[in-house]
Amino acid sequence: MVPPPSSENALSSKSLNSGSPLFQEPLLGLYFLTLFPGVFEPIFGSSLLGKAREKGLVSFDLIQIRDFAKDKHRTVDDTPYGGGEGMLMKVDVLHAAWSEAQASIAQQRGDSAKVLTIFLSPQGPLFNQPMAHEFKTYTDLIFVCGHYEGVDERFIELCVDREVSIGDYVLTGGELPAMVMADTIVRLLPGVVGNDRSLTEDSLERGLLKYPQYTRPREFQGREAPGVLLGGDHKQIAEWRSQQMLERTQRKRPDLWRAWKAKGGK
Questions:
Q1: What pLDDT does 148 receive?
Q2: 20 to 30 A from 89, CA-CA: which of 128, 194, 208, 247?
Q3: Quick one: 13-186 is in which CATH superfamily?
């Protein structure tokens, strides 16, 4: 049983999922092991993520790591063996929090559970759109949001399936990367985005950037929307957009262009 939140900014799973229809098993359950659960609600209560939660398509559960500390000071970190800068998150505390998430998933899903534990780490491969499509195939994702200088390596060896990074820069913790990944993955679930076709035309879905888009007014400060988009010839529009995708990717993202060409893109 999860200990009651003992932090002022701790939020319960019930508060995050209170809008979900009763007795409906979500398509995807997201669990976040974190020291700062309060930062999640502004994101998960808004926009498409909030609507997906209200529809019962996704559930968000926050597990306060500090609640599983064993001493009276609720210590979650300690100095590294062998010396060095900073502090490391303790393996026993993290393992207890992770085990609570696993137990909750087992209780809700039973044998149908397909779980992936993700540690947000600069040592992992960069998160991308194909990875998001892969992760949406799981029933539950456990995000481990680290802090300080890192975590005891034994936790990674015992519990983590994938280490993932969102970029080659240093953040203060794993909460922001976890929310970035959650947003990317959840919008791919059936029923989250109103027009499913828009998902297939997003930038990066085909390895290319999306074509430029325009709306009213037709002319603004001497710049007019391309005439091809106003003529009603859908074949010409499709051809123009395809060409724009190629030109835009080559100009703006030569790294994507090289990767696309290497895969046989034409």
A1: 86
A2: 128
A3: SPOUT methyltransferase, trefoil knot domain (3.40.1280.10)
